[in-house]
Amino acid sequence: MADRHEIFTALIDGAATAEEVAKSLELDAETLQRLLMLLCAAGLVERLPNGAYTVLGDIVPFVDRRSRKYLGGFVTHMVTSAAGRMPVLGDHLQHGKSAADPANADPFARIYADASSTKEFLSAMWALSADVSVELVDLAGLTGTRHLVDVGGASGAFAVAALQAVPGLRATVFDLPQVGPYLVETAERHGIADRLGFVAGDFLGDGELPAGDCLALGYVLSDWTDETCLHLLRKVHRACTPGGRVLILERLFEDDRTGPLGTAVMHLSMHVETLGGHRTAAEYLSLLDRAGFTNGRVRRSGQEKHLLIANKE
Question: Which overall architecture, per CATH, does domain 72-311 show?
Answer without folding.
Answer: 3-Layer(aba) Sandwich (3.40)
